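Quick bug: GDSL esterase/lipase output formatted oddly.
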Amino acid sequence: MAYLHISWLLLAQCLLLLVTRIVAKVPAVVVFGDSSVDAGNNNQIQTVLKSNFQPYGRDFEGGKPTGRFSNGRVPTDFISNAFGLRSSVPAYLDPAYNISDFAVGVTFASAGTGYDTATSDVLSVIPLWKQLQYYKEFQNKLRLYMGGNKADQTIHEALHMMSLGTNDFLENYYTYPGRSNQYSIEQYQDFLIGIAGNFIKQLYDLGARKISLGGLPPMGCLPLERTTNFMGGNDCISDYNNVALEFNGKLKTLTTNLNKQLPGIKLVFSNPYYIFLHMIRRPSFYGFEVSSAACCASGMFEMGYACNRNNLLTCTDASKYIFWDAFHPTEKANRIISDYVVKKVLAQFL
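Here's what came back:
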């Protein structure tokens, strides 16, 4: 009888452990950001920054251009899949989806946006504050769909991801005189950090507890930037990479500080910089052949409408390239970066 009692006790403990794991598992992925994680929100707004045409999406399910700035999936699609959720995260403004789809994954991201509202104004895209409004709207829909308690639990356990910042520097600060006349580069970084911190606090107040704050890539190595680096032999622009490193350092400090300030939050810093740079410096190690130019068109400066299916120069096999267009990685590069981030940072949420 004692043996039977121990067996039942062990079984109960195993079942409790299993239930705990199921409850603790991330039930949804909620995404904010720019073109690195936009799945088609820009399709539904008045802006010139779109990618809902071929050859974009040619390696996506069904060869369908969705509005993702890649030949296939973007990082959050792979991350969603890694958490056992759907293989792609739909855009909130896409009329083909509804709250039953968004309940397990949704992206509010808009290509061309940044932390700074002035950045989103450049190409008339969705600013970060508007993405937060959409998120509040989503929460209301989720409560009607699931019921208040279950919706609140889903929000509490969902992984909230942020991926933006590159446009603030390349599309705004270094391109237009407004912010560069107003701030030194260090001051502008601090200005953006303040916005990022406030945004995370707002997510926290709305019930989010698991948050991934994404860092900047080596933005001086984007083909578009290398093309302009005549004096440097079209190599990576080191000043831009140094700014990315400095900003990432500030994001990491912000992560440490907010984890101390906000009870119960689990904020992590997901840094793509080093894995991305390693891919660029040693492409053959990852099975790539080309790291300095993109697959689409000439590979030097084209993106958006300049990257179209009529261009005869577009490569036939994107898996040989790190970059799809002059600004965005290929699906293969996105998968490698995502796998790295999941294993190194996000695995604690699994």
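Actually, after a second look the formatting is fine. The chain has a mean pLDDT of 94. Closing.
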